[in-house]
Amino acid sequence: MDRAHSTDGSSCTPAGISGISGYELDLNRAIDLIRKSGAQLVGLQAPEGLKRALPALARHIEEETEAKVIISGDPCFGACDVDMQLCGAVDIMLHLGHAELEEGPENVIFLEARMNEDLKEVTAKAAKVLKAKKVGVTTTIQHVHKLGQALDALKEHGIQASIGPSGGRIAEAGQVLGCNYSAARSLNVEEHLFIGTGRFHPLGIALATGKRVVIADPVTGEVSEIDTDPLLRRRFAAITCAMDAKRFAVLVSKKPGQKRMELAERIKTMGQAKGLEMFLVYLDNIEPDRLLNLGAEAAVSTACPRVALDDAAKYRIPILTPPEFEIMLGERKWEDYSFDEIE
Ligand code: SF4
Fold it and tell me: Most buried among 91, 109, 198, 219, by the most CB within 10 A?
């Protein structure tokens, strides 16, 4: 998961907006756009980590413009997850914390939340752990504006670092999403350095590129190396478990940037050709109980890849990604395991 542009590099967060310290938000741009558009009703949406800031932000917008504000109370996981119902009910929607994906409604303003952490020190620490001299550097949208610091630090350590281009759903050069690693895959390098927090993105980079990945966490200052084995073991177990199932739910997301209906139809046809009972299920938020009530013995998720790969422990039935389902059917070799990505 995974985005507004600070014009002067300083924080535009008005005093009194709590829960958003450490981030820069270009509120001036948003206020300007709201005033120019003459919007009367503005929607606000943010991921859980930024939600506490929304009441104060709503108050700030109402003080600075003619508009009234309404906050989306539903969960929000990424730019793929715009609250479409609220979007249809307001003149302008401010979606905080994520960079714009290619697709999406026209009345949404994406207001990225950028973190202030310096990348130089943690990158210098990571340089001592990197073994190669040609290294690809990636990060998430929160740190992407500071990638230059990382590249400088690596250069000082004699490492030739490069970043992959933006394109498709990737808004900025060097950025990765949990569902897209094109910025890493496009590079001809020997190793990758991921700068950010959490292990999902570096796991994705390692599996998408087959290369060693070192993680530099600018928040904790820690440097570590990713090991794909535990994830691959869990996924192998899930595939094996799903082999006993006869009734498969093929999950299709209602979220605009996660909806892959064609892929779901293809998965359904593939399973039916092997004698399996396959049915499509259309959902907004994918929750364990909903699948059990449908009598599914296993599921294939065409929604956000994190549903199958990150949240698997929450479900009592195995949930596979599309490439994993192909392995289960014998249509793809385990050696050709690939991370599920959305182009
Ligand atoms: S599909 Fe998942 S990983 Fe991709 S942008 Fe949406 S929430 Fe993030």
Answer: 109
Give the atom of ligand 1 at the shortest distance from the alpha carbon of 101.
5
Task: From 142, 198, 202, 191, select the one nearest 162 (Cα to Cα).
Answer: 191
How much of the chain, in percent, has pLDDT values that exceed 70? 93
pLDDT of residue 322: 98
Q: pLDDT per residue over 224-263, tens digit each?
A: 999 999 999 999 999 999 999 999 999 999 998 899 999 9
Please name which of 312, 320, 304 lies closest in space to residue 267, comparing C-alpha atoms. Answer: 320
Q: Are 270 and 325 in contact (CB under 8 A)?
A: yes
CA of 217 to the centre of ligand 1 (A): 21
Q: Are residues 183 and 258 in the same domain?
A: no
CATH number at residue 54: 3.40.50.11840
Q: Where are the beta strands (DSSP E) in 207-307?
A: 212-216, 223-225, 247-253, 277-283, 298-301
CA distance 337 to 332: 8
Q: In the listed set 115, 133, 155, which residue is the last one of a domain according to the structure?
A: 115
The string of pLDDT tens digits covering residues 118-139 is 999 999 999 999 999 999 999 9
Confirm if 223 and 213 have CB atoms less than 8 A apart: no
Question: 243 with 174, same domain?
Answer: no
Closest residue by CA, ligand 1 atom 4 = 179
In-domain check, residue 257: yes
**Is the CB of residue 327 below 6 angstroms from any atom belonging to ligand 1?**
no
Secondary structure string (H, E, C) spanning 100-165: CCCCCCCCEEEECCEECCCCHHHHHHHHCCCCCCEEEEEECCCCHHHHHHHHHHHHHCCCEEECCC
Same domain, residue pair 48 and 29: yes
Q: Ligand 1 mean position to 290 CA, how many Å?
A: 21
Q: Is residue 343 part of a domain?
A: no
In whole angstroms, give the CA distance from residue 290 to residue 299: 12
Q: State whether residue 268 is helix, strand or coil.
A: helix
